[in-house]
Design a protein that fits this description.
It is a single chain. This protein is 77% helix and 0% strand. It has 237 residues and is mainly alpha-helical. It has two domains: 80 residues, no CATH class; 145 residues, Tetracycline Repressor, domain 2, CATH 1.10.357. It is elongated, with a radius of gyration of 24 Å. The N terminus is likely disordered.
Length: 237
């Protein structure tokens, strides 16, 4: 009888913990509805990515990840040998999504100026969605992964900016005498600075006004008269 009472006490103690987790992580409730050990590697990476982006990398242990995803630690370690491997996969998932979205935005239905405006806005908004905790954790605890993500991210964006200038020259919108490599590096630098630029917070100007001014400055520096006329028509409308 004593054992039965103990069992009842133990079982009632577990319920509040589960309810607490459901309220603490409401976006991940659906993982608890799945059978344990049934998640694919891609589903695990997606779930862990959302945890990292919301709470940071350092604060989420392998135990936390397994529990919140509703899978066993054994299953998690079958896919990823350690947390370093999981973080690496998270970063690759992040980069892959960014590159895929950028590719979708690149279209021949608009000219080079319009395309650069669309893609530039996407890149800056995408980078700003990343929690400062994620950036800090990668820099401090995973320096090699941070170094690789910066290299790959910059390389991809840099190539896109150069391709855009080549296209703009062919379309007769940009000047033919551009030093493409140097200008692409300047533009990339300005985009990266927009993530941490203190004046965005301290100044009286809105983020949209700062972005539009920076974009306008860039296009006027590389466009010929035809390109400038197009830009001014866009500003008026």
């Amino acid at each position: 009888m004593h054992l039965v009472v103990k069992g009842i006490i133990k079982s009632t103690e577990r319920k509040p913990k589960k309810l607490f987790i459901f309220f603490l992580f409401p976006r991940f409730n659906y993982f608890y509805l799945c059978k344990k050990n049934q998640m694919t590697e891609a589903e695990i990476i997606k779930g862990v990515s959302e945890l990292y982006l919301k709470y940071g990398i350092k604060s989420i242990t392998m135990d936390d990840a397994a529990r919140e995803l509703g899978i066993s630690k054994k299953t998690l370690y079958e896919y990823f040998k350690d947390k370093d491997e999981l973080v690496k996969q998270f970063v690759e998932h992040h980069l892959r999504n960014m590159h895929e979205e950028m590719h979708k935005l690149q279209t021949s239905q608009v000219n080079a100026i319009e395309e650069l405006l669309i893609v530039s806005k996407f890149i800056i908004q995408y980078l700003q969605k990343i929690s400062p905790n994620v950036t800090y954790d990668l820099q401090k605890y995973y320096p090699e992964i941070w170094k690789n993500i910066n290299f790959l991210q910059r390389d991809h964006i840099f190539d896109h900016i150069k391709e855009n200038m080549v296209r703009g020259i062919k379309e007769g919108l940009y000047r033919k005498d551009l030093k493409i490599d140097i200008i692409a590096r300047f533009y990339l630098f300005r985009m990266e600075m927009s993530q941490t630029f203190d004046l965005i917070v301290e100044s009286k100007y809105s983020y949209e006004e700062l972005f539009n001014t920076s974009f306008n400055y860039h296009i006027r520096g590389i466009a010929n008269q035809k390109g400038i006329d197009y830009l001014e028509s866009k500003i008026k409308h």
